[in-house]
Design goal:
five-stranded parallel sheet, 11% strand, single chain, 211 residues, 5 strands, binds CO-5-methoxybenzimidazolylcobamide
Protein backbone atom coordinates (compact mmCIF):
# COMPACT_ATOMS: atom_id res chain seq x y z
CA UNK A 1 0.00 0.00 0.00
CA UNK A 2 1.28 3.47 -0.84
CA UNK A 3 2.24 6.15 1.64
CA UNK A 4 -0.63 8.21 0.25
CA UNK A 5 -3.11 5.44 1.09
CA UNK A 6 -1.73 5.20 4.63
CA UNK A 7 -2.10 8.97 4.96
CA UNK A 8 -5.72 8.51 3.92
CA UNK A 9 -6.11 6.00 6.74
CA UNK A 10 -4.68 8.56 9.18
CA UNK A 11 -7.13 11.16 7.87
CA UNK A 12 -10.09 8.76 8.07
CA UNK A 13 -9.40 8.05 11.75
CA UNK A 14 -8.78 11.71 12.53
CA UNK A 15 -12.15 12.65 11.06
CA UNK A 16 -13.86 9.67 12.69
CA UNK A 17 -14.89 8.10 9.38
CA UNK A 18 -15.31 4.49 10.55
CA UNK A 19 -16.36 3.11 7.18
CA UNK A 20 -13.35 4.53 5.39
CA UNK A 21 -10.96 3.71 8.23
CA UNK A 22 -11.97 0.04 8.28
CA UNK A 23 -12.03 -0.22 4.46
CA UNK A 24 -8.56 1.27 4.16
CA UNK A 25 -7.25 -0.96 6.95
CA UNK A 26 -8.64 -4.06 5.18
CA UNK A 27 -7.09 -2.91 1.91
CA UNK A 28 -3.73 -2.32 3.55
CA UNK A 29 -3.80 -5.77 5.15
CA UNK A 30 -4.78 -7.43 1.83
CA UNK A 31 -2.01 -5.53 0.04
CA UNK A 32 0.50 -7.03 2.48
CA UNK A 33 1.48 -3.68 4.01
CA UNK A 34 3.63 -4.35 7.08
CA UNK A 35 1.47 -4.32 10.21
CA UNK A 36 3.82 -1.86 11.90
CA UNK A 37 3.32 0.70 9.09
CA UNK A 38 -0.46 0.39 9.36
CA UNK A 39 -0.30 0.73 13.14
CA UNK A 40 1.96 3.78 12.88
CA UNK A 41 -0.55 5.45 10.55
CA UNK A 42 -3.29 4.81 13.12
CA UNK A 43 -1.29 6.01 16.12
CA UNK A 44 -0.32 9.17 14.18
CA UNK A 45 -4.03 9.90 13.79
CA UNK A 46 -4.73 9.65 17.51
CA UNK A 47 -1.64 11.75 18.32
CA UNK A 48 -3.03 14.50 16.10
CA UNK A 49 -6.50 14.10 17.61
CA UNK A 50 -4.91 14.52 21.05
CA UNK A 51 -3.04 17.63 19.92
CA UNK A 52 -6.21 19.20 18.51
CA UNK A 53 -8.18 18.36 21.66
CA UNK A 54 -5.52 19.96 23.82
CA UNK A 55 -5.63 23.16 21.75
CA UNK A 56 -9.45 23.22 21.91
CA UNK A 57 -9.60 22.79 18.14
CA UNK A 58 -11.89 19.79 18.69
CA UNK A 59 -14.00 18.70 21.67
CA UNK A 60 -15.15 15.52 23.44
CA UNK A 61 -17.63 14.35 20.74
CA UNK A 62 -15.06 14.58 17.93
CA UNK A 63 -12.51 12.81 20.08
CA UNK A 64 -14.97 10.02 20.89
CA UNK A 65 -15.84 9.61 17.20
CA UNK A 66 -12.16 9.40 16.21
CA UNK A 67 -11.48 6.92 19.02
CA UNK A 68 -14.36 4.74 17.79
CA UNK A 69 -12.95 4.71 14.24
CA UNK A 70 -9.54 3.85 15.69
CA UNK A 71 -11.03 1.03 17.77
CA UNK A 72 -12.76 -0.58 14.79
CA UNK A 73 -9.76 -0.26 12.50
CA UNK A 74 -7.46 -1.59 15.21
CA UNK A 75 -9.72 -4.60 15.74
CA UNK A 76 -9.10 -5.59 12.11
CA UNK A 77 -5.37 -5.12 12.49
CA UNK A 78 -5.05 -6.93 15.83
CA UNK A 79 -4.75 -10.52 14.45
CA UNK A 80 -2.15 -9.30 11.96
CA UNK A 81 -0.18 -7.61 14.72
CA UNK A 82 -0.29 -10.76 16.83
CA UNK A 83 0.88 -12.86 13.87
CA UNK A 84 3.73 -10.43 13.26
CA UNK A 85 4.68 -10.62 16.93
CA UNK A 86 3.96 -6.93 17.43
CA UNK A 87 2.45 -6.31 20.81
CA UNK A 88 1.92 -3.19 22.83
CA UNK A 89 5.16 -2.63 24.70
CA UNK A 90 3.45 -1.27 27.79
CA UNK A 91 0.43 -2.17 29.87
CA UNK A 92 -1.78 0.30 31.69
CA UNK A 93 -4.47 -0.47 34.24
CA UNK A 94 -7.06 2.29 34.56
CA UNK A 95 -10.17 2.96 36.62
CA UNK A 96 -12.21 5.53 38.47
CA UNK A 97 -11.49 5.32 42.18
CA UNK A 98 -13.70 3.85 44.88
CA UNK A 99 -16.96 5.72 45.53
CA UNK A 100 -16.89 7.51 42.19
CA UNK A 101 -19.14 6.56 39.28
CA UNK A 102 -17.98 9.16 36.74
CA UNK A 103 -16.36 7.34 33.86
CA UNK A 104 -16.58 9.51 30.75
CA UNK A 105 -13.20 11.19 31.21
CA UNK A 106 -11.61 7.93 32.29
CA UNK A 107 -12.96 6.25 29.15
CA UNK A 108 -11.41 8.99 27.03
CA UNK A 109 -8.03 8.50 28.66
CA UNK A 110 -8.33 4.72 28.15
CA UNK A 111 -9.12 5.26 24.46
CA UNK A 112 -6.20 7.62 24.00
CA UNK A 113 -3.84 5.20 25.71
CA UNK A 114 -5.09 2.42 23.42
CA UNK A 115 -4.58 4.79 20.50
CA UNK A 116 -0.98 5.23 21.67
CA UNK A 117 -0.57 1.44 21.50
CA UNK A 118 -0.73 0.72 25.22
CA UNK A 119 -2.37 -2.52 26.32
CA UNK A 120 -5.16 -1.08 28.45
CA UNK A 121 -6.99 -2.96 31.19
CA UNK A 122 -10.06 -0.91 32.08
CA UNK A 123 -11.45 -1.77 35.50
CA UNK A 124 -14.44 0.57 35.16
CA UNK A 125 -15.63 2.89 37.90
CA UNK A 126 -15.94 2.64 41.71
CA UNK A 127 -12.78 0.53 41.85
CA UNK A 128 -11.45 -0.49 45.26
CA UNK A 129 -7.69 -0.13 45.95
CA UNK A 130 -7.19 -3.91 46.25
CA UNK A 131 -8.74 -4.37 42.80
CA UNK A 132 -6.21 -1.95 41.31
CA UNK A 133 -3.42 -3.80 43.08
CA UNK A 134 -4.61 -7.23 41.93
CA UNK A 135 -5.00 -6.11 38.30
CA UNK A 136 -1.66 -4.29 38.26
CA UNK A 137 0.03 -7.43 39.56
CA UNK A 138 -1.84 -9.85 37.29
CA UNK A 139 -1.19 -7.83 34.11
CA UNK A 140 2.29 -6.68 35.12
CA UNK A 141 1.24 -3.11 34.55
CA UNK A 142 3.76 -0.40 33.85
CA UNK A 143 1.23 2.34 34.55
CA UNK A 144 -1.84 2.65 36.74
CA UNK A 145 -4.27 5.44 35.87
CA UNK A 146 -6.65 6.79 38.50
CA UNK A 147 -9.56 9.09 37.73
CA UNK A 148 -11.72 11.03 40.21
CA UNK A 149 -14.40 13.63 39.56
CA UNK A 150 -15.59 14.24 43.11
CA UNK A 151 -13.73 16.14 45.81
CA UNK A 152 -15.06 13.50 48.20
CA UNK A 153 -13.34 10.67 46.27
CA UNK A 154 -9.97 12.39 45.87
CA UNK A 155 -8.70 10.78 49.11
CA UNK A 156 -9.35 7.35 47.53
CA UNK A 157 -6.51 8.17 45.13
CA UNK A 158 -4.07 8.38 48.01
CA UNK A 159 -5.47 5.18 49.54
CA UNK A 160 -4.96 3.44 46.19
CA UNK A 161 -1.40 4.71 45.76
CA UNK A 162 -0.62 3.64 49.34
CA UNK A 163 -2.04 0.17 48.60
CA UNK A 164 0.09 -0.13 45.45
CA UNK A 165 3.21 0.79 47.41
CA UNK A 166 2.25 -1.45 50.35
CA UNK A 167 2.00 -4.34 47.87
CA UNK A 168 5.61 -3.68 46.87
CA UNK A 169 4.68 -2.58 43.36
CA UNK A 170 6.91 0.48 43.57
CA UNK A 171 8.09 0.20 39.97
CA UNK A 172 4.57 0.98 38.69
CA UNK A 173 4.01 4.58 37.70
CA UNK A 174 0.73 6.10 38.85
CA UNK A 175 -0.94 8.79 36.75
CA UNK A 176 -3.91 10.67 38.13
CA UNK A 177 -6.46 13.05 36.67
CA UNK A 178 -10.01 14.32 36.76
CA UNK A 179 -11.70 17.71 37.04
CA UNK A 180 -10.82 18.48 40.69
CA UNK A 181 -7.26 17.13 40.48
CA UNK A 182 -4.20 19.37 40.33
CA UNK A 183 -0.46 18.86 40.02
CA UNK A 184 -0.12 20.04 43.63
CA UNK A 185 -2.51 17.30 44.78
CA UNK A 186 -0.64 14.72 42.71
CA UNK A 187 2.62 15.77 44.38
CA UNK A 188 0.99 15.72 47.82
CA UNK A 189 -0.26 12.12 47.51
CA UNK A 190 2.84 10.73 45.80
CA UNK A 191 1.48 10.19 42.29
CA UNK A 192 4.14 9.92 39.60
CA UNK A 193 2.22 11.96 37.08
CA UNK A 194 -0.77 14.22 36.59
CA UNK A 195 -2.62 15.02 33.38
CA UNK A 196 -5.26 17.70 33.00
CA UNK A 197 -6.85 16.02 30.00
CA UNK A 198 -6.75 12.86 27.91
CA UNK A 199 -4.17 14.01 25.36
CA UNK A 200 -1.72 15.02 28.06
CA UNK A 201 -2.32 11.66 29.74
CA UNK A 202 -0.67 10.05 26.70
CA UNK A 203 2.36 12.33 26.91
CA UNK A 204 2.68 11.78 30.67
CA UNK A 205 2.38 7.98 30.43
CA UNK A 206 4.85 7.80 27.54
CA UNK A 207 7.38 9.90 29.47
CA UNK A 208 6.99 7.83 32.64
CA UNK A 209 7.46 4.46 30.93
CA UNK A 210 10.44 5.78 28.98
CA UNK A 211 12.14 7.08 32.13
CO1 LIG B 1 -21.66 14.17 38.63
N1 LIG B 1 -20.74 15.63 39.56
N2 LIG B 1 -22.34 13.54 40.34
N3 LIG B 1 -22.58 12.84 37.57
N4 LIG B 1 -21.09 15.17 37.08
C1 LIG B 1 -19.84 16.50 38.70
C2 LIG B 1 -18.42 15.99 38.69
C3 LIG B 1 -19.99 17.89 39.46
C4 LIG B 1 -18.79 18.83 39.26
C5 LIG B 1 -21.32 18.57 39.04
C6 LIG B 1 -21.57 19.87 39.76
O1 LIG B 1 -22.02 19.86 40.88
N5 LIG B 1 -21.29 20.99 39.15
C7 LIG B 1 -20.20 17.43 40.94
C8 LIG B 1 -18.93 17.25 41.77
C9 LIG B 1 -18.74 18.35 42.79
C10 LIG B 1 -17.53 18.14 43.60
O2 LIG B 1 -17.16 17.08 43.97
N6 LIG B 1 -16.88 19.24 43.89
C11 LIG B 1 -20.93 16.13 40.74
C12 LIG B 1 -21.73 15.49 41.72
C13 LIG B 1 -21.90 16.26 43.02
C14 LIG B 1 -22.35 14.25 41.52
C15 LIG B 1 -23.21 13.47 42.51
C16 LIG B 1 -22.70 13.45 43.96
C17 LIG B 1 -24.63 14.05 42.40
C18 LIG B 1 -25.61 13.49 43.38
O3 LIG B 1 -25.97 12.34 43.29
N7 LIG B 1 -25.98 14.33 44.32
C19 LIG B 1 -23.24 12.05 41.90
C20 LIG B 1 -22.07 11.19 42.43
C21 LIG B 1 -22.18 9.77 41.99
C22 LIG B 1 -20.89 9.05 42.28
O4 LIG B 1 -19.96 9.14 41.51
N8 LIG B 1 -20.85 8.36 43.41
C23 LIG B 1 -23.00 12.36 40.45
C24 LIG B 1 -23.46 11.57 39.40
C25 LIG B 1 -23.29 11.84 38.07
C26 LIG B 1 -23.91 11.02 36.96
C27 LIG B 1 -23.96 9.52 37.25
C28 LIG B 1 -25.33 11.51 36.75
C29 LIG B 1 -23.05 11.45 35.71
C30 LIG B 1 -21.84 10.52 35.44
C31 LIG B 1 -22.09 9.58 34.28
C32 LIG B 1 -20.84 8.87 33.89
O5 LIG B 1 -19.72 9.32 34.05
N9 LIG B 1 -21.04 7.68 33.37
C33 LIG B 1 -22.50 12.78 36.17
C34 LIG B 1 -21.95 13.76 35.32
C35 LIG B 1 -22.08 13.47 33.82
C36 LIG B 1 -21.30 14.91 35.79
C37 LIG B 1 -20.75 16.10 34.99
C38 LIG B 1 -21.97 16.90 34.54
C39 LIG B 1 -19.91 15.80 33.76
C40 LIG B 1 -18.67 14.93 34.04
C41 LIG B 1 -18.06 14.52 32.71
O6 LIG B 1 -18.28 13.42 32.24
N10 LIG B 1 -17.35 15.47 32.06
C42 LIG B 1 -19.90 16.86 36.08
C43 LIG B 1 -19.91 18.38 35.92
C44 LIG B 1 -18.87 18.84 34.96
O7 LIG B 1 -17.75 18.34 34.94
N11 LIG B 1 -19.20 19.82 34.20
C45 LIG B 1 -20.37 16.28 37.34
C46 LIG B 1 -16.78 15.24 30.71
C47 LIG B 1 -15.44 14.51 30.82
C48 LIG B 1 -14.84 14.33 29.44
O8 LIG B 1 -14.58 15.35 31.58
O9 LIG B 1 -14.50 13.69 33.46
O10 LIG B 1 -13.42 15.99 33.67
P1 LIG B 1 -13.79 14.82 32.86
O11 LIG B 1 -12.47 14.20 32.21
C49 LIG B 1 -11.48 14.98 31.58
C50 LIG B 1 -10.37 15.43 32.55
O12 LIG B 1 -10.82 15.63 33.85
C51 LIG B 1 -9.31 14.40 32.41
O13 LIG B 1 -9.42 13.99 31.05
C52 LIG B 1 -10.78 14.01 30.63
C53 LIG B 1 -10.82 14.39 29.20
O14 LIG B 1 -10.12 15.53 28.94
N12 LIG B 1 -9.29 13.17 33.19
C54 LIG B 1 -8.11 12.49 33.36
C55 LIG B 1 -10.28 12.46 33.75
N13 LIG B 1 -9.79 11.36 34.30
C56 LIG B 1 -8.46 11.34 34.07
C57 LIG B 1 -7.48 10.41 34.40
C58 LIG B 1 -6.16 10.68 33.99
C59 LIG B 1 -5.84 11.84 33.32
C60 LIG B 1 -6.81 12.76 32.97
O15 LIG B 1 -5.16 9.85 34.23
C61 LIG B 1 -5.42 8.53 34.61
Amino acid sequence: MTTAALSQLTEAIKSGNRKQATALTSQAISAGTPAREILDAMVAAMDEVGRRFKCNEIFVPEMLIAARAMKEALALLEPVLVKAGIRPTHTAVIGTVQGDLHDIGKNLVAMMWKGANFNVIDLGSNVAPDKFVAAAREHQANVVGLSALLTTTMPAMKTTIDAIHAAGLNQIKVVIGGAPITQAFADEIGADGYAAEAASAVEVARKLVAA
